[in-house]
Specification:
The protein is an alpha+beta fold. The chain has a single domain, classed as Lipocalin, CATH 2.40.128. It contains one helix and eight strands. The chain has an eight-stranded antiparallel barrel with strand order 1-2-3-4-5-6-7-8. Strand 3 and strand 4 form a beta hairpin. The protein starts with a helix and ends with a strand. The relative contact order is 0.17. This is Lipocalin-like domain-containing protein. Keywords: Signal.
Amino acid sequence: MKKILILLMMTALVGFTSCSDDDEEGERVLGTWILQSVEPNTLFDPQECANNSTVRVEGDNTLTANFYFQQNNCDLTSGEGTWQKTGASSYSFDFPEVGEVSGTATFPSKDRMIFTSEEGIVFTFQRQL
């Protein structure tokens, strides 16, 4: 009986730990992010414009993007979109003027996010402080 009780307690602990990890990772994406680079940079090079392109990700699954595209003479293109967590490290972002991009996010540090799209495009973001 004692072994069953210990087994049940360990199962419950693992279940709670798994949920909190998922919640924490989902919350890690929240905040305002500065787009540092896009690889390959033939698509978009954020370093070409003087202003920072930013994405603000909100807890209600909305986002606000301010992009400065060199193809648009570095003029501001802004709008609202949505996002959702689709798996353990998977996200889908629907950016204004860009469209929906799905992929995987990794967080090498609390202030850095690397998002790799399903097409292999790598977006590197730095948290705006």
